[in-house]
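Model the whole thing, not chain by chain.
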Amino acid sequence: MNALIAFWNILLKDMKTYYLKPPNISWGIIFPISWTLMFFVRSGSAIDIRGILPGVMALSILFGTTSMLSVTITFERRSRSFERLLLAPISLNLLMLAKTTGAILFGIINAFIPVLYALFLTDLAGINWGATLLGVIFIAVTSTFLGLFIAVSVSEAFEAQTFSNFFRFPMMFLCGLFIPIGNLPAAIRPLSYIMPLTYGADIIKHAINRAGIITPGLSFLVLLAYSIGLFWISTFNIKRKWIY
Amino acid sequence: MDANIIEVTNLSKYFDDFQAVKGISFAVKPGEVFGFLGPNGAGKTTTINMLTGLARPTAGAIRINGSDAVQDIAAVQQMIGIVPDESNLYDELSGYDNLVFCASLYGVRKRERERRAEELLEQFGLADTGRRPFKAYSKGMKRKLTIAAGIIHEPQILFLDEPTTGIDVESARQIRRLVRELNDGGTTIFLTTHYIEEAERLCDRVGFIVGGKVVRIDRVTALMGEDEKEYIIEFTLGEGNSRPEAGLDQAMLQAFPGVKINRVDHRRLRVIPEKREPIAGFIKFFEDAGQPVYEAKIIRPTLEDVFVRITGIEIAKMKREKEGRRKR
């Protein structure tokens, strides 16, 4: 019970202190508009909103979760307030789950902001909302744990941003979000299949447009493996580097 | 319950090839204020980190209130409070919200943590500023709130790392009073400080740590008693006649064979007789020599004197190093 009280209050504190701040809310609103506008400018005509929706949703989650988590943890490390959490009588796994749950929720909310826009612009009938939600949750969890891995690997907030981009920019172009993987040069196509976002975006493509190319069950398994792996490496690194 | 609330046995910590803590052993009794004193790099913070779970010992054992701090750190963390050397609460949260949040980390229920937060703000003189964000607090207020955050879950043991460094005199005085009150209420205090006079005022026992080794642990009164064997009387003289200092000293040496005389300045001198003698004899000597005595007092050794004697470390240098490190 004590651990649950701690978990809940860490989550609430993070939501209040970081995720529900006006700049972050406005970022979540502006980001999908920017991407949609970019496609509109690029095509020069009417765009297939439903076609780009899975990509915009996946990117909203990826950027939202990795940016927020890596910066907030690095910031708390710098101010030494993170030490306060490490000294609390809760397990490291539960502590890190509490710290990451806020980012996961932030990512999930970010994912549905483009859906809200799309509701006004196109017909969203026939979408498998259950599978869409599952896909969004899995992408949010994996991306958040990637953010955690980044936060544990750096010591400064600017390093966190730079290191995040090292993962994010290749994912933007190689995960089939806007350019089908089949259209990529054969030599770099294997790279697409080692990036977790490929599998997450594919689940949403299945659910929204029935356009996925990977069996959803396999995608869920790969994302689960990535999530467990990234979380394990991150907590291992915390024990090694921060509880020295 | 163990006779000792903290028991440390052969504790060592290596950082790669460097041994920061070298097989130290000590014990702290329940209800004690125990001071851990030493210069920068002596191993104080590493020891505290090992006791509280922020660092893993390379070797040795730590038992806190009967629990193994190496194997079951969560059980230990539930019964300890920690006030680090820097105030590390959340800038964006108010003083009140910081306290409520810190209590929640220890599983304190909502109504109870709100009540305790209100009480502590009142007790620490922060009731009027409790709703202001932490970042708007002065250094002294931040320090007090950090201590309040360390005790909001009512720990049995409080680790205080340099509680008064870098804050104003009044706040430091208030903090020392609060520490004393906490201890009177039954909380065991483990204190590190480089203000030796602070340790002298607050601690029942102290341990001196130098170069990762504990060089001495004893009661403050016992340590100071060792240096009290030397009997020193300090006289402050009036301007009186114009007798040269050297001449006066010479006359005294003749009148009181075996005394040692140390001049503090041209009006103050310290007289160290071979054995205890009444002050009246010395006062009569000065008056006969035409030097009115304005003040005469027995000089008792300070803990600082004892620390310097045992460790050979210059206190002023230790303070400069510490202040310099904080500024950086």
